[in-house]
Description:
This protein is mainly α. The chain has one helix and no strands.
Amino acid sequence: MAVRAGTAAVRAAAVREILFVLLLGAGGLLLALLAAFAPWYPAPTGRRPAAVVDLNSPAEPVSSNGLTAADMVGGPSRVPGVAS
């Protein structure tokens, strides 16, 4: 009879330990979510929100040798009209 009472106590302790580990893990997950999604800096007050300023890409600059970026795809050693 004493063996069965000890077994029940061991099972209760195991259940308590598993519940403690699960609660500790859930608390850690909650803290990680709070740290990931909470603002880490004060929000600006009285300022306009950020917005896209310009949607046009700048004109492609002309290099001194007349090559464009499309001509240089193979690398700087590739010059049109010159055998490599």
